[in-house]
Amino acid sequence: MATIRVRIPRPEAEAKALSEAMEAVFEEEGFPVAVFESSADGKTWTAEVLILDSSVNDARLMAEERLAPYLDGGVLPQNVELDELPEINWVAKSLEGLKPVRAGRFIVHGAHDRDVVSKHDIGLEIEAALAFGTGHHGTTAGCLLELQRLLQRRRYHRMLDLGTGTGVLAIALAKLTHQRVWATDIDPIATETALGNAELNGVGPLVKGFTAAGVDDRRFAEIGPFDLAVANILAKPLVKMSAHFAAVMARKSVLVLSGLRIEDGPRILSAYAQQGYRLERRREIDGWLTLTLVRGNWQP
After folding, report:
1. What are the contacts of 75-81 at 24+ separation with CB within 8 A?
2. Is 163 known to sit in a ligand binding site?
3. Structural domain includes residue 185
């Protein structure tokens, strides 16, 4: 199966609205969505989604079915572009030339930028890979800043990075605390990437990981309960797993949740309030939201 790129050119306002619809209807699969100016005069923009592990025909049917409420007549326009992309590491390709990014004391960088890390910084060397999380996204940066704030105030004993991606957050936790951190992901490639990056950053012995489809996997109960967990995922799975997630957390515990649009805040807070969590802090970066939630009568 291949990666199919679906591009729909529209006037600017329509393209932006369509890209928001794409994010909503493809949220659960996490298919990459983009919107960009595509004509010299600025009148035409293009909404794009990459449909993974598909064929051109299947991608067309999926896009038309899910986007029907947002399309004229419920069908894809004649100028829609569907292309099968060659087998390239598109995440790596997209990250070529990206500069190091700073989040507090952390600097997330590639191997070619090691010299930018001073003795006062905490370097996180993350090479482009088939996993999400490089620090260049507002959700990852928000989590890094929040973890620094929390760990300046209190020591935690069992820490979890759920949906670890490249492992950047687990590595950050290990470097800040010099303690064991568990890193898990639904994707075995992500788990392998995270553990490899932990070795690269000198914290391999501290970062332990495994692949699991959800927090109801028995291994979470065996190694928990956790008193600090970070999950940079998406709103829908975070809501769906709220009860199971809370069940593997300690009675007094902190959750740092991200991968959220600003408008996702109320439903996340509602879902986790039912599990005894209250909002302790919210952070917005580039239209993305990071929430810190606390359970128990304590102040993190």
Report:
1. 76/8, 77/8, 79/8, 79/9, 80/6, 80/7, 80/8, 81/5, 81/6, 81/7, 81/8, 81/9
2. yes
3. yes
Q: Can you tell me whether residue 203 is helix, strand or coil? A: coil
111: in domain: no
Contact 33, 60 (CB under 8 A): no
Check whether 140 is labelled as a binding-site residue: yes
Token pair belonging to 2:
């291949």
Residue 177 has pLDDT above 90, yes or no: yes
Nearest Cα residue to 157 out of 129, 134, 180, 123:
180
Report which secondary-structure segment, H or E, holds 279.
strand 277-285
- Does 83 belong to an annotated binding site? no
Query: Residue 121: in which H helix or E strand, if any?
Result: none
pTM score of the predicted model: 0.69
Tell me, yes or no, whether 185 and 251 share the same domain. yes
User: What confidence tens digit (pLDDT) does each residue in 66-121 have?
Assistant: 999 988 888 888 899 999 987 655 455 544 445 677 777 877 777 666 777 777 87
CA nearest neighbour of 170 among 220, 135, 209, 118: 209
In a domain, 137, yes or no: yes
Tokens of 57: 């025909």
The CA distance from 249 to 149, in Å, is 20
CATH value at residue 38: 3.30.70.1060
166 is in an annotated binding site: no
